[in-house]
Amino acid sequence: MTRRISGLTPGFPTILPAGFQRAAAAGLLAAVLAIPALSGLTAVPVLAQETPVKGGVLNSIVQPEPPTLMLGLNQQGPTQTVAGKIYQGLLTYDQKLEPMPSLAKSWTVSPDGLTYTFKLFENVTWHDGKPFTAKDVVFSTNVFLKEVHPRARAVFARCESITAPDDHTVEFKLKEPFPAFLQSFEVSSAPMVPAHIYEGSDFRANPANATPIGTGPFKLKEWVKGSHIQLVRNEAYYKAGLPYLDGITFRVIPDAASRSLALESGQVQQTQYSDVEPFEVPRLKALPNLDLSTKGYEFVAPLSWLEINHRVKPLDDKRFRKAIAYAIDRKFIRDKIWFGLGRVPTGPINSVVKFYDPKVTTYEPNIEKAKALLDEMGLKPDAKGVRATVKIMPMPYGETWTRLGEYLKQALGKAGIAVTLESTDAAGWSQRVSNWDYEITTNFLYQYGDPALGVARTYISDNIRKGVLFTNTMGYSNPKVDALFASAAREIDPAKRQADYSEVQQILADELPVVWLLEMEFPTFLDKRVKNANKTAIGVNDTYEDVWLAAK
């Protein structure tokens, strides 16, 4: 028996098996201003209009500059924001995490929860004019993403088969139930890539990576490194009348003060993630031409931490990691560095994500406990009070992360842990972390609505994959943790899933493979002329196919 689920996108019914819905779905500004003027550059407060207006260019910021726009190969935040307009997944999600159509117009799930069948839109073409078909979906999910993606291999390896009964139908048959499967198809989790471009090639070295070819409402026109990325309307987009915008220009502005000034002056109409430093938020929030929201990040539910390389001594000893946890003050980090944007975490699952359990070991600031643990390890202070020296490489995502690095150096120093701060750019950081060439770094990962998708990947042993970012790059391994994540992922009964996830949270909170810092909230600023933006659970990373600019 199947059941039609209403309340999603009008005209596109979703069919799920009865009883299965909950489990399945549960200083540089001058350079910027010198770029030739495009329509829609200047933003001023106006009255809202009832009918969408076609035309105009939305100007946004991208910071740091993405290392690539090939979303299948790189899922760093800036890449997702830009490439989410170029590439598409089969589904997107509303702010309650319910699936909605993207490249798939409808889908069904068999009563036993093992067969997922997607019906694709029939008039979709790639940006080079070739038709998008079920063959591309099979290639993307069964070949391409399994090789290069940090999460997709674990998801699609659960499939007994992935087949195309016809050009516009794809059937996924699972080996065993996997309730999170329907949440695996948003654009960064499973971006569709063109089989005719990548089949039989070296995926990472394919020349097309420099000129991405997607199905989305916008396509790449120009990328001037260090200056801007210009997307233009895909005139052959499969949804009639869309997109409304002529294009979207992402402006690269490394300087934090210049980013805020560009938003304040109307030279850009959107910022997201860490574009605006937290200390600027109160001032910008008060401006009459801007709207502030922390919505649009429900699907990602970001959690930040100190990522610790267990291959390096004494970082492999959980007592040392616990000493680090006791030496830092997470409330200070939230209130004084992130200016109240976020929540203090207790463990590996963000408190807004299903199956969170707060009943775990926690670490309130306590320098004496930190020193006692280091004493227990035999790390006695030298004449300068130094017990150990570590290298910390802060994320290159803006001034706030630099400030965090400085705070960590000061806080750990009080426990006798001397810190050397290392600096790098976004591409260098990605390369070093993915290849395990670091001691400690700051990082944040997305949780994607279900621990089976966004949490397990960081801690399970079979996801220790050198060269692939956002995997288990620490090298942490615990067979019990592996077994609990595996059991919870296939369990249909929510109560039994909760029991498994509660136990795994207790183990991880004790062993501290990473030291959790902050359940992050990001400020999204939009000029009031911008309509229909940031309205799904993936917010600014969505296609923006129906975003429009009100008249000046």
Structure, explained:
- By secondary structure, the chain is α+β, with helices and mostly antiparallel strands.
- Helix content is 26%, strand content 20%.
- It contains 17 helices and 23 strands.
- The chain has helices at 21-25, 29-33, 77-83, 134-148, 152-156, 195-198, 256-264, 281-285, 318-327, 330-337, 367-376, 399-413, 426-434, 451-454, 456-459, 479-490, 494-511; strands at residues 2-5, 14-17, 57-62, 91-93, 99-101, 104-109, 115-120, 159-166, 169-174, 218-224, 228-233, 247-252, 270-271, 290-293, 303-308, 342-343, 388-393, 417-421, 440-445, 514-520, 524-527, 530-531, 548-549.
- The strands form seven sheets. It has a six-stranded mixed β-sheet with strand order 16-20-15-19-17-18.
- A hairpin with an 8-residue loop joins strand 1 and strand 2 (14-17).
- Helix 9 packs antiparallel against helix 11 and helix 16 (479-490) runs antiparallel to helix 17 (494-511).
- The longest helix has 18 residues, at 494-511.
- The protein is globular and about 70 Å long.
- It starts with a strand and ends with a strand.
- The model is unreliable at 1-49 (pLDDT under 50).
Task: Summarize the helices and strands and which ones pair or pack.
Elements: E1 2-5, E2 14-17, H1 21-25, H2 29-33, E3 57-62, H3 77-83, E4 91-93, E5 99-101, E6 104-109, E7 115-120, H4 134-148, H5 152-156, E8 159-166, E9 169-174, H6 195-198, E10 218-224, E11 228-233, E12 247-252, H7 256-264, E13 270-271, H8 281-285, E14 290-293, E15 303-308, H9 318-327, H10 330-337, E16 342-343, H11 367-376, E17 388-393, H12 399-413, E18 417-421, H13 426-434, E19 440-445, H14 451-454, H15 456-459, H16 479-490, H17 494-511, E20 514-520, E21 524-527, E22 530-531, E23 548-549
Parallel strand pairs: 3-12, 17-18, 17-19
Antiparallel strand pairs: 1-2, 4-5, 6-7, 7-9, 8-9, 10-11, 11-12, 13-21, 14-21, 15-19, 15-20, 16-20, 22-23
Helix pairs in contact: 9-11, 16-17
